[in-house]
Amino acid sequence: MNSMNDTGAVAGPASGRTSHTHRLCGLAGTGFIATLAAMVATTLAAALAQAVGVDFEVPDGGETIPLSGFAVVTGFFSVVGIVIAVALLRWSARPAERFVWTAVFLTAISLVPPLLSGANTATTTALLGLHLVPATVMIPTLARSLRTRID
């Protein structure tokens, strides 16, 4: 809310602080909506893979990864991505560019465990694909949000 003081100048909120806070909140809000979308997309893709015969059994212990596990892990690491994006928005001169490089690098690293798991070919292939599903949702969404929030 703006008001006139007796000198005729318009007094309003400190634009730098409010704008910065607004940018962070907007990025976080966009990120959390993208996180929900990534969780749904990954879980649906895992359910589809199960429907065509992928068992998601990891030989170490013989445990089968439940569908809820895909949602939880996707949600956790998507939130980690949001935190990285917020930090880069706060402390980087080129947050979108640095975020994309960081996120692509971390996605590439995330592809290593499925390759080392010893699971059958179908499970390994599905797990690799399921690492790419949330990346294709989160990385472009957060990068676009970082680009549009530059003053």
From TrEMBL:
State the UniProt keywords alphabetically.
Membrane, Transmembrane, Transmembrane helix
- UniProt cross-references to InterPro entries, sorted A to Z: DUF6069 (IPR045713)
Residue ranges annotated as transmembrane are 24-49, 69-91, 98-116, 122-143
Its domain of life? Bacteria
The entry's protein name is: Uncharacterized protein
